[in-house]
Specification:
Layout lengths: L3 E3 H7 L4 E9 L5 E10 L2 H11 L4 E5 L12
Antiparallel strand pairs: 1-3, 2-3, 2-4
């Protein structure tokens, strides 16, 4: 069984990477608090391709670094 990691641990283990999280644990505003890391990469497109390949029932994609120049995140 895969290990459930909290967000701090995910950020520590995968700095400045895009991370595909299965069965994300969220708070009341749906902010990701943790989950099972299914895949990670410096390349966002690789992560989305993997999500398409795996087709997890519930998932989230987060970026663990500062937003790339010219990119904004919607919360």
């Amino acid at each position: 069984m895969a290990e459930v990691l909290d967000q701090a641990r995910i950020h520590e283990q995968y700095p400045s990477e895009w991370v595909l999280i299965g069965d994300p644990q969220t708070d009341e505003s749906f902010a990701v608090k943790g989950g099972v890391v299914l895949f990670h990469s410096k390349n966002r497109e690789e992560v989305y391709r993997k999500a398409h390949e795996l087709r997890p029932r519930r998932f989230s994609v987060i970026f663990t670094g500062e937003p790339p120049k010219g990119m904004e995140f919607m919360l």
